[in-house]
């Protein structure tokens, strides 16, 4: 199974259309740990949303694990997202009426496997040091706890690909470091392919590769 392949991606928004991505091509192998960097407005989050199937390009093609996302029907893409893709946002977006454990097993509820998943959810919570949050509601958690619970939720289906948009952007240094440690660990231990957007050069330095964007184009891959 192959990794992530983006070819000649263009993306425009608005009227008159403004080009945000201009002929971007990128290949990421399975098991890679890649940081997407660049100033605000450079197009890095837009590219992340497109290669993860959350948004469509204006033109170009994206393949995830060998399947093209562009011609895929919504049921197919939904299925792929549920099984193979985890996503972590800058804000944790936990459901306020569910406990930590219920939030984590939420993706499995759609497939009716959440009972079987509880043991794995508790294992994830324990390894991310948030086991004490299993019966807490999001309003009772700190920002760092909420974000780690959100990462556990993204990982509950054991996705092959994890995408993260500024996952440490809302956290202090200690909690940001914890999040990056988790990413590093799941990349090394589970072989999860990770692509994350960051403004922080230290966190970008933890990745195996760095893709730097300027004005909607890839300026440098290191």
Order of helices and strands: EEEHEEHEHHHEHEHEE
- Number of E-state strands: 10
From the N-terminal CA to the C-terminal CA, the straight-line distance is 24 Å
How would the global form be characterised? Answer: globular
SS summary, helix count: 7
Detailed description of the structure:
The chain has seven helices and ten strands. The mean pLDDT is 89. Helix content is 36%, strand content 27%. The protein is α/β, with parallel strands linked by helices and 222 residues long.
SSE order and pairing:
Elements: E1 4-13, E2 18-28, E3 33-38, H1 44-51, E4 59-64, E5 67-68, H2 74-84, E6 85-88, H3 100-109, H4 114-127, H5 143-155, E7 161-165, H6 173-190, E8 193-197, H7 201-206, E9 209-214, E10 217-221
Parallel strand pairs: 3-8, 3-9, 6-7, 7-8
Antiparallel strand pairs: 1-2, 1-4, 4-5, 9-10
Helix pairs in contact: 3-4, 3-5
Give keywords.
7 helices, 6-stranded mixed beta sheet, alpha/beta, 4-stranded antiparallel beta sheet, 27% strand, 222 residues
């Amino acid at each position: 199974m192959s990794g992530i392949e983006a070819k000649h991606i263009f993306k425009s928004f608005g009227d008159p259309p403004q080009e945000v991505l201009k002929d971007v091509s990128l290949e990421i192998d399975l098991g890679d740990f890649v940081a997407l960097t660049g100033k605000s407005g450079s197009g890095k989050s837009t590219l992340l949303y497109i290669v993860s199937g959350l948004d469509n390009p204006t033109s170009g093609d994206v393949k995830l694990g060998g399947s093209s996302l562009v011609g895929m029907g919504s049921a197919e893409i939904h299925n792929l997202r549920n099984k193979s893709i985890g996503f972590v946002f800058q804000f944790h977006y936990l459901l306020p009426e569910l406990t930590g454990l219920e939030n984590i097993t939420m993706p499995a509820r759609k497939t009716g496997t959440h009972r079987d998943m509880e043991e794995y959810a508790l294992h994830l919570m324990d390894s991310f040091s948030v086991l004490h949050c299993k019966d807490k509601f999001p309003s009772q958690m700190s920002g760092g706890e909420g974000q780690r619970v959100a990462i556990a939720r993204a990982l509950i289906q054991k996705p092959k690909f994890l995408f993260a948009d500024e996952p440490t952007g809302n956290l202090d240094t200690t909690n940001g470091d914890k999040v990056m440690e988790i990413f590093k660990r799941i990349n090394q231990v589970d072989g999860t392919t990770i692509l994350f957007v960051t403004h922080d050069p230290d966190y970008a330095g933890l990745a195996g590769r760095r893709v730097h964007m300027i004005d909607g184009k890839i300026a440098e891959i290191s």
